[in-house]
What we know:
Elements: E1 3-8, H1 15-28, E2 33-39, H2 46-56, E3 63-65, H3 79-83, E4 94-95, H4 96-106, E5 111-115, H5 120-126, H6 138-145, E6 146-152, H7 164-167, H8 170-182, E7 186-190, H9 192-195, E8 199-200, H10 209-217, E9 223-224, H11 226-236, E10 244-253, E11 260-264, E12 270-275, H12 279-290
Parallel strand pairs: 1-2, 1-5, 2-3, 3-4, 5-6, 6-7, 7-12
Antiparallel strand pairs: 8-9, 10-11, 10-12
Helix pairs in contact: 1-11, 4-5, 5-8
The structure holds calcium ion.
Calcium ion is lined by residues 8-9, 12-13, 16, 116-117, 227.
Amino acid sequence: MRNIILGTDWGEDCDDAVAVRVLTRSHKAGKINFIGAGINTHTPDAAPSLYRFLEKESCIIPIGVDKSCPKKDWQNRYQPRLAAETDKTDDDFEDAVRLYRRLICEAEGKVEIIEIGFLQVLAGALMSEPDDISPLSGMELFKEKVSKVWIMGGKWSEQGGKEFNFSYTPFARKAASVVLEKCPCEITLLGWEIGAGVPTGNTLSRDDYLYQVLADHGSPYGRESWDPMTAIMAVIGDEDMAGYNFVRCRASVDPETGANYYIPDENAKCKFVCKKFEDSYYIDMINEVIE
Ligand SMILES: [Ca+2]
């Protein structure tokens, strides 16, 4: 069974919640082993609300949060309703970089990582020093145990494209640059242009708490599918079988601006995907999994 860790900016947008539903359903169907989730944006309700969501999904897995990221005080649109249903607080959750190191160390066999938010936690784990969890550095751990990284990020329809996950903050820009440069394993990138105009979630039952998340976010008619498309491609585990062509390339992000660039190269470790089918193909595939 393939071990999967999720990195998410849970709370910034609601397509993360749709992606989490894709992963919990796939886990329960025996398609993947969903072993943990790290949150790469830090609000007081972030980890408690994801905990409650996963509890409702009957998928209890370890959650970490990026404690190096200053805790934002803004009230997220869908976290408070979920967080109010649990006694857990931010203090009950460990630092996400430590969680990544621990999960990678303890996993039986290889691990794959899906990132649908900012890349500070992934970059932090990759560049981490040996500690009480493992005598190996992050780079050594990744070389030994991490077989693949799936990332929603970048805008690959143009050179110099800028996309939220790679460019929103100075930390995000630097982290994206580090990951694309240093990560030793293969990376598949799903860019902004793929999920834009692909709404999902509008067929959910109005009684479904995932629908409530979308409604609380301000997306009662569904939300574009950057994150669930990335999640479902990772679950399928093969770009072609998930409905994509790809361009293998040397991909990079400017650490100052967050703009992304690529040079086609058949021997490079990165790929960005292009859709093979009409949007309805992907919409139907996701809606079928999350209902
Ligand atoms: Ca996201």
